[in-house]
Amino acid sequence: MNEELTVDPAAMARHERFGKLPERIPPEHMIEEKQAEPNAGVTAEYNPEGAWIFSSCLALDLGL
Question: Global pTM?
Fold first, then answer.
Protein backbone atom coordinates (compact mmCIF):
# COMPACT_ATOMS: atom_id res chain seq x y z
CA MET A 1 0.00 0.00 0.00
CA ASN A 2 1.37 3.33 -1.01
CA GLU A 3 -0.42 6.18 0.72
CA GLU A 4 0.41 9.67 -0.38
CA LEU A 5 0.57 12.33 2.28
CA THR A 6 -1.87 15.08 1.42
CA VAL A 7 -1.67 18.23 3.48
CA ASP A 8 -4.62 20.53 3.74
CA PRO A 9 -3.64 24.22 3.44
CA ALA A 10 -5.91 25.08 6.38
CA ALA A 11 -4.22 22.41 8.50
CA MET A 12 -0.84 23.82 7.57
CA ALA A 13 -1.95 27.31 8.58
CA ARG A 14 -3.28 26.00 11.92
CA HIS A 15 -0.06 24.14 12.60
CA GLU A 16 1.98 27.23 11.69
CA ARG A 17 -0.09 29.34 14.12
CA PHE A 18 -0.73 26.89 16.97
CA GLY A 19 1.93 24.21 16.46
CA LYS A 20 4.21 25.39 19.28
CA LEU A 21 3.90 26.87 22.72
CA PRO A 22 4.55 30.58 23.25
CA GLU A 23 7.81 31.68 24.80
CA ARG A 24 8.02 31.42 28.58
CA ILE A 25 7.49 34.68 30.51
CA PRO A 26 9.85 35.13 33.46
CA PRO A 27 8.17 35.84 36.82
CA GLU A 28 9.90 39.22 37.17
CA HIS A 29 8.00 40.41 34.08
CA MET A 30 4.66 39.46 35.67
CA ILE A 31 5.03 41.70 38.74
CA GLU A 32 4.04 45.34 38.80
CA GLU A 33 5.18 47.48 41.68
CA LYS A 34 3.14 50.50 42.62
CA GLN A 35 3.75 53.01 45.38
CA ALA A 36 0.98 53.10 47.97
CA GLU A 37 -0.76 56.35 48.73
CA PRO A 38 0.41 57.68 52.10
CA ASN A 39 -3.07 58.72 53.35
CA ALA A 40 -5.18 55.94 51.83
CA GLY A 41 -6.59 54.80 55.20
CA VAL A 42 -7.25 58.32 56.47
CA THR A 43 -9.31 59.46 53.47
CA ALA A 44 -11.39 56.27 53.22
CA GLU A 45 -15.00 56.81 54.25
CA TYR A 46 -17.07 54.38 56.33
CA ASN A 47 -20.45 53.42 54.95
CA PRO A 48 -22.52 51.80 57.74
CA GLU A 49 -25.32 50.77 55.35
CA GLY A 50 -22.94 48.82 53.15
CA ALA A 51 -20.76 47.42 55.95
CA TRP A 52 -23.03 44.42 56.62
CA ILE A 53 -22.36 43.09 53.12
CA PHE A 54 -18.78 42.15 54.02
CA SER A 55 -19.52 40.22 57.21
CA SER A 56 -21.15 36.83 57.43
CA CYS A 57 -23.60 35.93 60.14
CA LEU A 58 -25.41 32.59 60.35
CA ALA A 59 -28.50 34.25 61.86
CA LEU A 60 -28.71 36.66 58.94
CA ASP A 61 -28.13 33.85 56.44
CA LEU A 62 -30.98 31.86 57.96
CA GLY A 63 -33.23 34.90 58.14
CA LEU A 64 -33.58 34.78 61.94
Answer: 0.29
Per-residue pLDDT of the chain (64 residues; tens, 9 = 90+): 455 567 789 989 989 888 888 899 999 998 888 887 776 666 667 777 766 665 567 776 777 6
Please enumerate in sequence order all residues whose Cβ is within 8 A of that of 43, keeping only pairs 6 or more positions apart, or say none.
none
> Cβ neighbours of residue 60 under 8 Å, at least 6 residues apart?
52
Return the biggest CA–CA distance within the chain.
82
Q: What is the DSSP string of 1-64?
A: --------HHHHHHHHHHSSPPPPPPGGGS----PPPTTHHHHPPP-HHHHGGGS--HHHHHT-
